[in-house]
Design goal:
With 324 residues, this protein is α/β, with parallel strands linked by helices. Helix content is 42%, strand content 18%. Helix 5 crosses helix 6, helix 6 runs parallel beside helix 11 and helix 7 crosses helix 8. Bound molecules: adenosine-5'-diphosphate and 6-O-phosphono-beta-D-fructofuranose. 6-O-phosphono-beta-D-fructofuranose binds next to loops.
């Protein structure tokens, strides 16, 4: 066993994502295999403050790899954002013998993990969010499941849209990031995609597309709109008025966050969870696991948070070209 850590705590924080359970399972079983004890903290940082902490053994994570959501529950905690809250959380870690903490979540959760590291708790973040909006990594747990779920739903909307020769605006999740919209745009062959990173709010351009494609004989017009652009229902009304083509809006919402994780999410979650424990066992702290150029690596949390990520312009170009 490492001299660095003896008891590893694990929590899930922020929005849940399919595959979080698989990541917790990997953390638990890797830690146990290395001779560490494991504590599960319920409801993220809120549960750490309330001491909702339990021992986990290998059976605690049996039958979890295939389950969506997070059996540890998740939460957002305002109290933890304060210096007093962070002190109390670090104190609770010490009280329960937790000297290494795996935080599965997004950027906000990693900011919290950096604060705890500053207070003497070894921490590591594992990227878990359906939005793929963590700059340091090319993969986040939950993204693949969410895209597959949205893709299947959009296919269904397309069936009815084609039957009625309608235009359909389908809103997918992504408050600040358009990755789900972009990947569905390619996977569903959408005529238009609206991404918060790029959308110029020029509805005239969309109307022109719809009219042009309609004249060419297209039987549907699928617009995938990211939540960050939003306003799908009012946009549908305006587009119908401008084109004379019946237009409907469908907001997919939280169904994209649930469901059994895909193989990709289960595999990535298992690898990232195991990797996180290894980093703690090496005595390293304030790190975040990342998938970069086909391999797992890790970064200092603050360095990772300062990184910028841009929408891939080739992917955008392909999505547009292939639906023309
Ligand atoms: P995500 O981790 O998915 O980005 P949030 O941004 O909601 O989700 O963050 C999850 C939790 O992490 C917050 O409720 C809060 O307790 C904690 N957190 C977020 N930002 C900070 C911060 N700057 N400092 C300390 N804790 C933070
Ligand atoms: O998990 C990420 C995300 O789905 C965003 O796309 C969305 O804006 C947000 O979470 C909504 O989360 P909630 O409804 O839990 O506040």
């Amino acid at each position: 066993m490492s001299e660095a850590v003896h008891t590893i705590g694990v929590l899930t924080s922020g929005g849940d994502a399919p595959g979080m359970n698989a990541a917790v399972r990997a953390v638990v079983r890797t830690a146990l295999a290395s001779g560490c004890g494991v504590k599960g903290i319920q409801k993220g940082y809120a549960g750490l403050l309330e001491e909702e902490i339990m021992d986990l053994d290998r059976y605690s994570v049996a039958d979890k790899i295939n389950r969506g959501g997070t059996f540890l529950y998740t939460a957002r905690s305002e109290e933890f954002r304060t210096a007093e809250g962070q002190e109390k959380a670090a104190e609770n870690c010490r009280k329960h013998g937790i000297d290494g903490l795996v935080v599965i979540g997004g950027d906000g959760s990693f900011r919290g993990a950096a604060k705890l590291a500053g207070l003497g708790i070894n921490t590591i973040g594992v990227p878990g969010t359906i939005d793929l909006d963590i700059s340091c990594t090319e993969y986040t747990i939950g993204f693949d499941t969410a895209v597959n779920t949205a893709m299947a739903a959009i296919d269904k909307v397309r069936d009815t849209s084609t039957s009625h020769e309608r235009c359909s605006i389908i809103e997918v999740m992504g408050r600040r990031a358009g990755y789900i919209a972009l990947y569905c745009g390619i996977a569903n062959g959408a005529e238009d995609i609206l991404l918060p990173e790029l959308y110029d709010y020029d509805e005239e351009k969309i109307v022109e597309h719809i009219v042009k494609y309609h004249k060419r004989g297209k039987k549907h017009h699928i617009i995938i709109n990211a939540e960050g652009v939003g306003h799908s229902t009012s946009m549908a009304k305006r587009i119908q008025a401008a084109t004379g083509i019946e237009t409907r809006a469908t907001i997919l919402g939280h169904l994209q966050r649930g469901g059994s994780p895909t193989a990709r999410d289960r595999v990535m979650a298992s690898l990232m969870g195991a990797y996180a424990v290894q980093v703690l066992l090496e005595g390293r702290s304030k790190r975040v696991v990342a998938y970069k150029n086909g391999a797992l690596t890790d970064y200092d949390i603050e360095e990772a948070l300062a990184m910028q990520k841009e929408i891939n312009s080739f992917e955008v170009m392909v999505s547009q070209m292939l639906s023309k």
